[in-house]
């Protein structure tokens, strides 16, 4: 008989990118075995662009904190996905995901399933090109295998952290982008196409032939973030599996634009939430995480009204889009500790993006 696993999810506030005190307290209190951590997702208070070093700073702090209990090899197996940018009222925080043996009294599945994969390093000339698409697809399949999830349709979210190109790499020649900021979008887009291929949403031949960042192909379950702090890709897959136990559930929606919260409300209700309007505090407490992508519509308009997100030379459009979508989502959930990531190339329709919700359904199955 296979040992059932149970997912754990802890959302912890951060006083700054170097603040791992909440994580340390969990371990010291016995609530979390550090050896069972699968991934740590975080929102850090940098600009989310090329020169955002808050992401790497946070990873360094996490590795130093966990180094009290884990060796370097164990730390390398944890996917540490930091997303920069807490514009508006977005609150810096981390989401710690762990997988432990399910206790005998754990609620039966299907329940939240977790898997991760850290790929090989990408060569600069591979970033934003078919080689990255193929490697991302391979990474998603490996993460699914790690989670014990066989059916792509049971995957609700695939979070991929990707590298970007440095000025020195671009100067050396042979790269897909001639600009570091542009390379972020190409890297995110290639990874998203790979997710779509792995999950059966996008035909592999179409993905390989696509103009990354321009082709009208997209995944409903991909979330890709870029940063200078890594050279390979870190993949985290979240799905539902009868082989997993416990109260945690996941569902996803696709927002057509930053105002489109109707699909998010529908996902909340499918998970068992009961509400009218904004979630009441007891329901908001059951929402363990909101994971979403945001993007400025390339049309230059939102529902027929002109926007200026793409025309601002001072502030990146990805920063505007994060604040825009986060405000709408926070108004629905009732707080702003949300993982909203900007730049949604091939991640949802133009101007929109996927949104996944982790929900604690404790005691609901019997109601």
UniProtKB/TrEMBL annotation:
Regulation: Inhibited by barbituric acid.
KW Hydrolase (keyword) present: yes
Coiled-coil ranges (or none): none
Keywords: Hydrolase, Magnesium, Metal-binding
Keyword Metal-binding annotated: yes
Source domain of life: Bacteria
Pfam families: Amido_AtzD_TrzD
Catalytic reaction(s) noted: cyanurate + H2O = 1-carboxybiuret + H(+)
Catalytic-site annotation from UniProt: 161, 225
Protein's pathway: Xenobiotic degradation; atrazine degradation; biuret from cyanurate: step 1/1
GO MF: cyanuric acid amidohydrolase activity; metal ion binding
Binding of Mg(2+), residues: 295, 344, 347-349, 352
Binding annotation for substrate: 55, 83-84, 188, 225-226, 322, 341-342
Function: Responsible for the hydrolysis of cyanuric acid, an intermediate formed during catabolism of s-triazine based compounds in herbicides such as atrazine and polymers such as melamine. Catalyzes the hydrolytic opening of the s-triazine ring of cyanuric acid (2,4,6-trihydroxy-s-triazine) to yield carbon dioxide and carboxybiuret, which spontaneously decarboxylates to biuret.
The name this protein goes by in its record: Cyanuric acid amidohydrolase
Organism: Rubrimonas cliftonensis
């Amino acid at each position: 008989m296979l040992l059932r696993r149970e997912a754990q999810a802890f959302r912890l506030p951060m006083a700054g990118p170097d603040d791992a005190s909440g994580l340390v307290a969990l371990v010291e209190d016995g609530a979390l075995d550090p050896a069972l951590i699968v991934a740590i997702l975080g929102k850090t208070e940098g600009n989310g662009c090329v020169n955002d070093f808050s992401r790497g700073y946070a990873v360094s702090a996490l590795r130093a904190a966990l180094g009290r209990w884990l060796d370097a090899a164990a730390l390398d197996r944890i996917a540490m996905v930091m997303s920069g940018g807490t514009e508006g009222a977005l609150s810096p925080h981390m989401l710690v995901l762990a997988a432990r043996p399910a206790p005998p009294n754990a609620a039966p599945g299907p329940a939240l399933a977790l898997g991760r994969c850290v790929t090989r390093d990408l060569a600069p000339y591979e970033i934003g090109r078919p080689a990255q698409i193929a490697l991302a697809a391979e990474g998603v399949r490996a993460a699914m295998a790690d989670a014990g999830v066989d059916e792509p349709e049971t995957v609700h979210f695939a979070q991929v952290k990707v590298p970007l190109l440095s000025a020195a790499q671009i100067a050396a020649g042979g790269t897909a982008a001639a600009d570091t900021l542009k390379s972020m979008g190409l890297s995110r887009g290639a990874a998203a196409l790979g997710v779509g291929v792995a999950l059966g949403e996008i035909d592999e031949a179409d993905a390989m032939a696509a103009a990354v960042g321009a082709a009208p192909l997209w995944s409903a379950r991909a979330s890709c973030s870029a940063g200078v702090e890594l050279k390979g890709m870190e993949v985290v897959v979240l799905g539902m599996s009868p082989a997993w136990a416990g109260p945690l559930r996941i569902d996803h929606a696709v927002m057509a634009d930053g105002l489109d919260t109707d699909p998010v409300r529908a996902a909340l209700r499918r998970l068992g939430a009961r509400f009218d309007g904004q979630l009441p505090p007891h329901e908001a407490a059951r929402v363990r995480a909101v994971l979403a992508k945001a993007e400025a519509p390339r049309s230059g308009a939102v529902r027929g009204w002109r926007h200026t997100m793409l025309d601002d030379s001072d502030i990146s459009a990805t920063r505007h889009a994060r604040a825009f979508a986060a405000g709408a989502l926070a108004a629905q959930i009732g707080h702003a500790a949300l993982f909203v990531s900007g730049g949604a190339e091939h991640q949802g329709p133009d101007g929109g993006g996927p949104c996944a919700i982790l929900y604690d359904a404790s005691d609901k199955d019997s109601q």
